[in-house]
């Protein structure tokens, strides 16, 4: 009775919104009786954080070094800050150890006292429970052992923290909503976690230009709800919008569902305020669309995943929120039809096209099987591919007529074998739920090997087919993603983590991608997962220049260590 | 037998309602409009009855401005056979009693065996039209239906309705009025082939004069205001403080 629930939710006023309004009182709380409930996507955490942990580390086993025999690090029980465990990370069959960088200091009680001095008491967190959730990523694949979580309230506090950490050579991991998929937002060892979640104020919105300035800890969905009141829209939209923060979105250069319409954050972010490792505050918080004065340094921080500094404020250009959105969920029989449909949609829907997403039959099966209340729009027949086309425009009847004509022509031309058009927002939400629920369904299905590839559109699905042939019945291979952007999410699901399956996937998937001049990370970033894989997508010279920039901006290497760039660049 | 279903065009239930600055009503311009969810359930039920062979035709009707045709088009895309659009012109909102009178006039022309309505529209939440039209027609009514069974031979509809104490089962002699509750069914999606078919179905426009119905408003909207803003929560530091607040501030203990 999903429908029943949603209506009840409507009738009762939405609890969710009220809840978030309590936590984020800075966000103006609209008094309207009805919450904009379209496409709310919440990340559902498994009930018990550790229960399913073992099966969720396909790429890295995390276990105490002691269990390997051999090297044994005894925790120093007296010291409240000593790292009690040294982690070994085993990359499936090819074991690589990332050693804790010995040049980093360990936290001591003087450090804690210093932080207590400069921060409010309740923002210096040593509580085991709160640390354990900050130490582990939401997919429960990566787990660090940080003993300290700091929650700065403003830029000045961030600056003081970093200046101190730099002087003491304490490694730092910047954290936002912790919804990343590549282990970039959690510590690897005992890095100090600096979470900017309390910095969640909206600074200003220019109602004429649509330029929004806000602090880095603002949750994406809250920003969007705020903008909705002013008839503007966040230019990015992704499944984790209820938890992810704008600072994290920018520092990982998140892509998402509306990329095809509004483009990259490199285009939409107009300015940033960033705190560098030594505490220097870089005020680049411009709000100009055009500004050709010297090197545009903000771009260094967009997508650098916290390895160059902590983003504390963001200035972002937001497009007008248009009143008419239509969504169609379509079935196609082969991948070439999906491609041709994309081409035709670009031409036929042109200015109103706002999303073009696809999923294959395995992804659909998984969602229907694992998620409650999801309804198959085509209950009577199975299809090989499904495509979501969203249009956004200003005139509902014009847009609708345009979409219908386009779809009818495509159906007559044989590109589409079946299709449904959402008649209201509730139906649209249930179509989006299928697409956005895939990640969650995969998590529920067992171990998942996730790859986020950019590939030429015509080659994009070949890797899925090849992978299916390689793995046979040992794994379920799912392909879905942002077809409009040439971005495939290749996900391989097995009931339990299996070294043999992993060995079949890597490095094959990276080699294949490199061979087709794709990118091994389209929108998720490199994080910890792919830090040593960067050479598949970037030339040696490029990586070398990145390393020089890293050394220049963060000479002690304290900012989000072990991530993005391979460890080898640090060896002399 | 013919089934008539009344559908209403309302602000989509997922849209955040904004009150007009002059407090004369809610903002309707540039707002997504959809079929009232309870009406959607009504259309679905009519289609299921027709598909089960107990009815031969489903006629969707709506009262309102020109854009109501879009809502009727949705009903046709779901599978209704034809539609009637009573054009209200510049009358503004048509209140339940007026709608009931219009529906009565339509029923007298179309002579359906069953009139299905949503139990209420989610915009004004009146929950009156079904009851009023049953009264005007002197037909039996089964409101808040959560299950409908039609006996074609005996011309009887058995309606289960959700009441406070549990379920109540009514047996109605046809013709009758049924209003739908949430759990009656899950409406189908409009598929492309059906959307295509709907394009060639007829939406007949009818004026109030043709129906010989005079509408006058018995109600006057004085003011529309927003509900009070919800205050931010506070975190209490101890159980004692919580109890103190519950006793002295909230006065619930």
From TrEMBL, chain A:
<keyword id="KW-0560">Oxidoreductase</keyword>
<protein>
    <submittedName>
        <fullName>D-2-hydroxyglutarate dehydrogenase protein</fullName>
        <ecNumber>1.1.99.39</ecNumber>
    </submittedName>
</protein>
Automatic annotation (TrEMBL), chain B:
<protein>
    <submittedName>
        <fullName>Electron transfer flavoprotein beta subunit protein</fullName>
    </submittedName>
</protein>
